[in-house]
Amino acid sequence: MDTCEIKSPEVPQQGTPTAACSSMNRKKLGIYFIESEDRRMALGRGYTRGSTPVNIHGKSIVDLSKTGGWIAAFFIFGNEMAERMAYFGLSVNMVAFMFYVMHRPFESSSNAVNNFLGISQASSVLGGFLADAYLGRYWTIAIFTTIYLAGLTGITICATMSIFVPNQENCDQLSLLLGNCEPAKPWQMTYLYTVLYITAFGAAGIRPCVSSFGADQFDERSKNYKSHLDRFFNLFYLSVTIGAIIAFTAVVYVQMKYGWGSAFGSLAIAMGVSNMLFFIGTPLYRHRLPGGSPLTRVAQVLVAAYRKRNESFGSSEVIGLYEVPGRKSAIKGSQKIAHTDDFRFLDKAALQLKQDGPNPTPWNLCTVTQVEEVKILIKLIPIPVCTIMLNVILTEFLTLSVQQAYTLNTHLGQLKLPVTCMPVFPGLSVFLILSLYYQTFVPVFKLITGHPHGASQLQRIGIGLAVSILSVAWAAIFEKYRRNYAIQNGFEASFLTPMPNLSAYWLLIQYCLIGVAEVFCIVGLLEFLYEEAPDAMKSIGSAYAALAGGLGCFFATLINSVVKSVTGNSDKRQESWLSQNINTGKFDYFYWILTGLSLINFCVFLFSAHRYKYRTQHVYEMENVKHDVTNNGSATIGSS
């Protein structure tokens, strides 16, 4: 008897000889994995419906009206606000602390802070794994916020007690510039780096879990679920922005008025208060049960697919693609996922053969849902990867634009803003855009795109990436003007002296543009990853965004190092483009390199976004196929 290659369900062509064979294979593949009765549990454990929320004790919540919703979400917002307040507070103050107090060069201070930013985001993969596999999002947040608080307390102690810092006597600005101040002892720097990276490690469990845990508070079965989710992620990022604004203003003010110890102490106090509020909200939270190790499930798919790599889909030994019986998935916390034709080599892992027997191990035979989880994780990768370049620009602006601001007049009327306050302006632009998003942007984009939410998630990411290119291009144009102005007016050697007739508020253009880019790109990415990630891997999906941010920080450090080594030559006394003296460097050339890389990255994103297919489309097509197959089967029976 002829066999047909197994494929995803397609709409049958009526009245053709191959329709019957095609229909049989469609039923074998498209519906078989819902009806199979061969094995009760694929992973040797129970299973639950992905949309069933539980309380902190793991028991199903009968009355959802008493839990979750916006009240629970607001308790969670506070935790993220405090974390980002500390994150940005350290990012903007730690460079100055290392330079002025620990007597480290700007270059090494900047790299250390970039590494802190990178570790705090890249380590989110670990937090996401622990949350999805074992701890759940609530306990992961609870444990890592405590670690974060311990790190902030250690930094506060370093800034408060003189034993942890070098001698500050006879160390004026000229001595700092000439490197004549007493350097920090190795053990003092070791202590500072240790508590700094403990703080970064604490962010590992907060960053990937807070947004997902907040989104878990809304009922998937509600007709307003999509609207609530869209507003949640905008408000979530608004809380991030408020934390950043406080860091760039209030914390800087405390530092200038009361000193470094008080500044870092205020961050620790804010984190402590947010932890207390998070725990107070415990009775209100809805939880999702962890689904077991996602890495184990991924490994099982890869091993099973490799073992069956030589098997043919058309072999007479093939029974079909395997799935557990009934409507529930074998993976705790996950619904079943319809089969797709992507990455066909992975389908070998779910290819059930006669020799597999009645109860094979998952290392030999995986369910369709388990295979589709791996496919989804792979398909998601290009989108967050394309946001790495945006995070590179954000990281560069945090450090390089501060160096620009030191040479500019920061007076606003009679008010003189500290240079370290300048990064507040991207936050203010983000705050303004998010506040006006539904009243202004959504109606305008609805007219253009016809999308009910103004723009799809991928469209929003694309808009953000496009605006980031404009931001860094403007930075290059203005930097060339600023450097030429400094040289022409005799400020070439005075890179820490503000030029009175050139306002720092020209930087607002690049700040506001990058703020717009951040709103559209990062918020769209968070929502995209949460909705598209498998049910039992939501935290891993959110960790993709944080990992992209971390890689952006590391790539920023790498690009800086490459540019310095290529363009500078100490033997010939040739300064690099990123010279500590910004007036003799070529920061504008560097910004043009970032512009070119961003353009290439944007083209890659357009290609990836064009090829991507939303999961909701697969579900819709699967339902249509089941309906078509049922109708076709009834017609065939009737005709016979």
Short description:
With 640 residues, the protein is mainly α.
Kindly state the number of beta strands. Answer: 6
Low-confidence blocks of residues: 1-50, 618-640
Q: Could you tell me how far the N terminus lies from the C terminus, measured between alpha carbons in angstroms?
A: 21 Å
Largest sheet: 2 strands, antiparallel
**What's the helical proportion of residues?**
55-70%
What spatial form do the alpha-carbon principal axes imply?
globular
Radius of gyration from CA coordinates: 28 Å
**Structure classification:** mainly alpha
Structure description:
α2 (69-100) packs antiparallel against α7, α3 runs parallel beside α6 and α13 packs across α17. Helix content is 63%, strand content 3%. The chain has 640 residues and is mainly alpha-helical. It is globular and about 85 Å long. The model is unreliable at 1-50 and 618-640 (pLDDT under 50). Strands 1-2 form a two-stranded antiparallel sheet. The protein has 19 helices and 6 strands.
Characteristic terms for this protein:
two-stranded antiparallel ribbon; 19 helices; 640 residues; mainly alpha; 3% strand; two-stranded parallel ribbon; disordered C terminus; globular; 63% helix
